[in-house]
Write a structure and sequence with these properties.
The complex is a heterodimer of chains A (475) and B (450). Chain A is of the alpha/beta class and 475 residues long. In chain A, α1 crosses α5 (151-166), α4 (109-133) packs across α5 and α6 (188-202) crosses α14 (437-459). Chain A is built from 14 helices and 15 strands. Chain B has an 11-stranded mixed β-sheet with strand order 6-4-1-7-8-9-11-14-12-13-10, sandwiched between helices. Chain B has a 3-stranded mixed β-sheet with strand order 2-3-5. In chain B, α1 runs parallel beside α3 (70-83). The model of chain B has no long low-confidence stretch (mean pLDDT 91). Classes of the chains: A alpha/beta (475), B alpha/beta (450).
Chain lengths: 475, 450
């Protein structure tokens, strides 16, 4: 079994990360009844013998002593990280896993990437090395950050670069929260586009998330619960909808429900690597199957169900509804409609009491309404994990490499150009050491190229399918 | 003679476990329907073939378990041990942590060479435990990365280390509509490589077994376990002891040799399909009776009409008229031409069965001597609760269409160069792909022109 390390950068990254660790502990607590430190736990947690203090040795077997997250918390402001350290998760983090500063990045990618990057480089490398040393077999780094700010965006992508340099063999999965159109950070288009170039070049897989989508999903859940339409069939305490039962005090923070969804995404993504099933799907398989060409590594994700149903023995109809929902517009975690765009590849990771026949039936049912690229007409990757998420009897994560990400990128480019044409706020960036105009032109060029690749694929969508002629053998 | 089984990857290990379970439960059963002496002889023969005796008395499977990540093997080992009736040897497995990521090149070019010594040591140990080594059976899928890539590499190593032993690869062909997106690439790479080192490929297609589960076994929510159990039953129906025609009174002592020599007369034709009837839910068995003539008639029509199971057989298909010179283009459509066939009969009154219909020369291609094309094995000892059971192992055009489909889809993807960077980064280049495509197009052409 392999280990993964989470690197959470910036305010958004750390808030999502915090929800992730909380949910991960709850999930493992629900599954691991005997309190023995097992391989599943070891993928995200170390087991430290703290009797001799915080620097105790790692225990690879035996009873759970003190679980420490395999994580690096980075923020150039102290607020969020301090809160985490004073909160109920404080024992899960080691003080040696934190890198903080005081003044923040001022929503400036250049400050995050060039200035703090340079300043903290050695510190970051050292801490990463330490975390890697605690891993028996490190397979993947998960970076969580937002694109629109300064730290998550700038320093986050700096770390991404570092990871490629220092650990070229380890996969880099990046969960990026993209800014919405009405984002209150004026320079978010600059930050996002500058960050995109780094994602294009250094990430193995990117899971783009848009706050608007998360917001709509959370609203929908609240509506359903409050309308009472589903009555007793809807349980309110699923891992997705609430933090009830989690280690939290009084009121939920506004973004918590939204961050929970992203945290669940990461849990489900790694579930088949951690737990057993009849058809395992590991992280390296996700990258292998969903990335047909190196730069096209943006995966649109959707999670269902988002609320729990009371009956455990779910009739097929409900199960099938779960599959249908996964492909509907309002379950996607970005503002996109994969059904009406072109699929390059699609992965379905099912958890719980779902068998291969359920999977096949639904693929057959949904296939006709989906458009797949001509060279990958049957491009499905499937995984079956026996362990369901907490509070659910089954769940589905769909990951799509689909041209429906294009509009998000085009909008980003448009917002960027609006500012860039007028050279608005550019001086804030250019005054940073190491930052030049060419950084901007290269970044927008990289984004344009990416959009162009998607355009070319889209052009093939409704065209005639010409199958290449096969090799001829002399008889 | 003993057979050493090498279980490769998640699929190989899951199926291997079901196979040993089925074999063990069959010999422990009291449904033999034959004399006590016959039954004991059968049990001894099966045990010698597949199990080793330990001091505790619990039979130990003659198997090596290989996977590049730990979960499947650990599940397999514990399930076997918890049965109480048989188990795997506690050290006879090799495992890594990272998996192969569904990447054939990773399995073949990276894991293969890296772990060759450790794996072959385990195989050597198992081989040495056999009084007489009858050969190797490898179980693998061709869709993923370990079973397929590492499996192809290990097969080559087996061939190098045991040049005179029989090697039979049991290969699982994935569902047509994806389990793995790059499954067609992995399949093409696997099949072409196996063709060069293996003696024969015994194939099971997930789609076909799935249909059997749905329509014949009446299973509502079909799991991989169900599919694997049907496959294990079919394997058992081939590998459990039988008397061969010229073998005297005892059970055959050379199961793989007896299987492979008549069925694979020409190196270009190595693909074996398997059909087994009847197949039904256990609960219905008590209420069903079968007649040998009926079973034989159905089995023969399954063969010539290229049917996948006992339902939906096309009875219109007939063999071409004897005596006329038929070129392959004149043969009736959908008629499945055979190179060689083996029928295995188990159960009551086997001695009375007339298999003349299988010896009809019009079923076979013209370039083989008619006497060499058909063989039959029999045993009065019933198998796995079926009062009568008939299996067909066939070297014919059974697999032509599915093979052609896989190669077609792989070629389509290859033409767009999609996913190639994932393979080149581990050392498999475009030229390597082309070589594999060429090998398989050759195989397709050969089978088409029968």
């Amino acid at each position: 079994m392999t280990q993964s390390v989470v690197v959470q950068v910036g305010q958004c990254g750390n808030q999502v990360g915090c929800r992730f660790w909380d949910l991960a502990l709850r999930e493992h607590a629900a599954v691991n009844k005997k309190g023995i430190y097992d391989e599943a736990l070891s993928s995200f947690f170390r087991n430290v013998d703290t009797r001799s203090g915080d620097n105790g040795p790692d225990m690879y077997k035996g009873k759970i002593c003190s679980l420490k997250a395999r994580a690096l918390l980075i923020d150039m402001e102290e607020g969020v990280v301090n809160e985490i350290l004073q909160g109920p998760l404080r024992d899960v983090f080691d003080s040696k896993q934190l890198i903080t500063d005081v003044s923040g990045s001022g929503n400036n990618w250049a400050v995050g990437h060039k200035m703090y990057g340079c300043q903290y480089r050695e510190n970051i490398v050292e801490k990463l090395r330490k975390t890697a040393e605690h891993c028996d077999c490190l397979q993947c780094f998960f970076i969580i950050h937002s694109m629109g700010g300064g730290t998550g965006s700038g320093l986050g992508t700096f770390v991404l670069n570092l990871l490629e340099e220092e650990f070229p063999e380890v996969y880099r999965f990046v969960t990026s929260v993209y800014p919405s159109g009405e984002d209150d950070v004026i320079t978010s288009p600059y930050n996002s586009v500058l960050a995109m170039k780094e994602l294009n070049e250094h990430a193995d897989c990117v899971l783009p998330i848009e706050n608007e989508s998360l917001f709509e999903i959370v609203n929908k859940i609240h509506q359903m619960i409050n309308s009472g339409k589903l009555g007793s069939t809807v349980k309110q305490n699923s891992l997705v909808t609430s933090s009830a039962g989690s280690a939290k005090t009084l009121q939920e923070k506004p973004f918590d429900a939204m961050n929970n969804i992203v945290a669940n995404l990461l849990l489900n993504l790694t579930s088949s690597a951690r737990f057993e099933g009849s058809l395992n799907m590991d992280l390296n398989e996700i990258s292998m199957n969903l990335v047909p060409f190196p730069r096209l590594h943006y995966l649109v994700s959707s999670l269902t169900p988002l609320y729990t149903l009371a009956d455990v023995n779910v009739p097929s109809r409900r199960l099938d509804q779960m599959f249908s929902d996964a492909f509907s517009r309002d379950h996607q975690l970005i503002q996109a409609d994969p059904k009406h765009s072109l699929y390059l590849a699609c992965a379905l990771l099912v958890r719980g009491n779902v068998q291969v026949s359920d999977l096949r039936r639904n693929i057959e049912r949904l296939k006709p309404s989906l458009h797949f690229v001509s060279w990958n007409q049957e491009g499905w990757k499937t995984g079956l994990c026996s362990v369901p998420p907490v509070g659910h009897s089954h769940s589905l994560l769909a990951l799509a490499n689909n041209t429906c990400v294009k509009p998000t990128f085009i909008e980003l480019k448009d917002r960027f150009m609006k500012l860039y044409k007028k050279k608005a706020h550019l001086h804030h960036y250019l005054q940073i050491d190491g930052m030049e105009q060419s950084c901007f032109s290269e970044a927008i060029s990289s984004l344009s190229d990416l959009i162009e690749e998607y355009n070319e694929l889209d052009a093939t969508k409704d065209g005639p399918r010409i199958e290449p002629s096969r090799l001829k053998i002399a008889v | 003679m003993s057979i050493v089984t090498v279980q490769l990857g998640q699929c190989g290990n899951q199926i291997g476990h079901e196979m040993f379970s089925a074999l063990c439960s069959d010999i422990r059963g009291t449904h033999g329907l034959c004399s006590k002496k016959e039954n004991e002889s059968y049990q001894d023969s099966c045990k010698e073939r597949f199990f080793c005796e330990e001091e505790s008395g619990v039979p130990v499977a003659r198997a090596v378990l290989v996977d590049m990540e730990p979960k499947a093997i650990s599940q397999t080992l514990s399930m076997a041990a918890s049965s109480g009736h048989w188990k795997y040897h506690s050290h006879s497995h090799f495992c890594q942590k990272q998996g192969s990521g569904n990447n054939w090149a990773n399995g073949y070019s990276v894991h293969g060479p890296r772990h060759k010594e450790a794996i072959m040591n385990l195989v050597q140990k198992e081989a040495e435990k056999c009084d007489r080594l009858g050969g190797f059976l490898t179980i693998m899928s061709m869709a993923g990365g370990t079973g397929s890539g590492l499996g192809a590499f290990v097969t080559q190593c087996l061939r190098d280390a045991f040049p005179t032993s029989f090697i039979l690869n049991h290969v699982i062909w994935p569902y047509g509509t994806g389990e793995v997106i790059v499954q067609n690439y992995n399949s093409v790479l696997t099949l072409s490589h196996l063709y060069h080192s293996s003696d024969a490929l015994l194939v099971h297609e997930n789609d076909v077994i799935h249909k059997i589960c749905a329509r014949l076994m009446n299973i509502k929510q079909i799991s991989f376990r169900d599919v694997n159990q049907v496959i294990a039953h079919q394997l058992g129906s081939v590998f459990q002891p039988t008397h061969t025609a010229g073998g005297g009174s005892g059970y055959s002592r050379n199961p793989l040799g007896d299987l492979l020599e008549p069925l694979v007369p020409h190196p270009e034709f190595r693909m074996l399909g398997l059909r087994n009837i009847p197949q039904m839910p256990e609960s219905s068995l008590a209420f069903s009776t079968f007649s040998w003539p009926g079973l034989i008639k159905h089995l023969r029509q399954i063969l010539i009409a290229n049917a996948q199971m006992e339902e939906g057989i096309d009875w219109q298909v007939r063999p071409p008229h004897p005596g006329s010179s038929i070129s392959s283009t004149n043969k009736p459509l959908h008629f499945n031409t055979s190179i060689a066939n083996l029928v295995i009969l188990r159960g009551k009154d086997v001695h009375s069965v007339d298999l003349g219909s299988f010896q009809d020369p019009s079923l076979y291609t013209s370039w083989l001597n008619p006497q060499d094309t058909f063989n039959a094995w029999k045993t009065p000892r019933a198998f796995n609760k079926y009062e009568k059971s008939a299996s067909l192992v066939s070297n014919s055009q059974f697999l032509l269409k599915p093979l052609d489909s896989i190669v077609g889809k792989a070629w389509n993807m290859f033409a767009s160069k999609a996913y190639l960077h994932q393979y080149t980064k581990f050392g498999i280049q475009e030229e390597d792909f082309l070589d594999c495509f060429t090998t398989l197009e050759q195989v397709i052409s050969s089978y088409t022109n029968l």
